[in-house]
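Example record

Each entry pairs one chain with its bound ligand, 2-phosphoglycolic acid.
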Amino acid sequence: MTNNNIYFVANWKMFGDVKSVNSLNRVIKLTKSKKYKNIKIIYCPPYTLLDRLVGKTKNYNIDIGGQDCHFDMNSGAFTGSISSTQIKKLGCKFVILGHSEKRNEGDTNFIINKKIKSALNSKLNVIFCIGETKQEKKRNKTFEVLKKQIFECLKNIKIKNNLLIAYEPVWSIGTGNVLYHDDLRIVVNKLKNIVKKKYNKHIKILYGGSVNTKNISELKKVNNIDGFLIGNASRNVNKFIDIIKKSSN
Ligand code: PGA
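Structure tokens for the complex follow.
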């Protein structure tokens, strides 16, 4: 990992209820320790828990984010959706966009581009997910796919420090398969170079996909990643804390 702030994003997906809120107590305690002053924890719970988690963490070094938003930042007749403005007004600072599970539900690069614009206009920071499928990897299309996702989703967007990229190979999410060592370092390096060349901006890159308490010791050795987007393991507070502690050793 880099020597900069290390990000740990907890993506709870469609899990959790009001009882889950108390699991943050131990994480809050951890953030008070000087040893962990360089870590940035962001919880992305389902919409139903955003308000409670914002209240719970407002005096601590933990930020809250949504897992998606509508592309229209204004109010509107969009049943089932939530706008970036609504998320921002709750006190959230982040939103995940472009996650492969939302892409599976129909989000194209074009739609994601509109959602990112909406989120940035609402002054939310964006955790922008990209990743290749197993078939694309097999056909050696990884960089072609990642480049296309970056260029199309970030079209006409001025990148500042308000956007992080989460590289999540689709074949790695929820499967236990992980990209390690030089293989991961090379992808991250290329992604940073692609962004630098096109947007003249140094971008932070998180890795996501089956990050757990066992593989974190190897993953943290990859010296150019800026943190992790953690799904399954983030819902168990013991595991989440273990991952943070092992990353910081
Ligand atoms: P996982 O999910 O850690 O359960 O693989 C990661 C993600 O989908 O963001």
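The mean pLDDT is 96.
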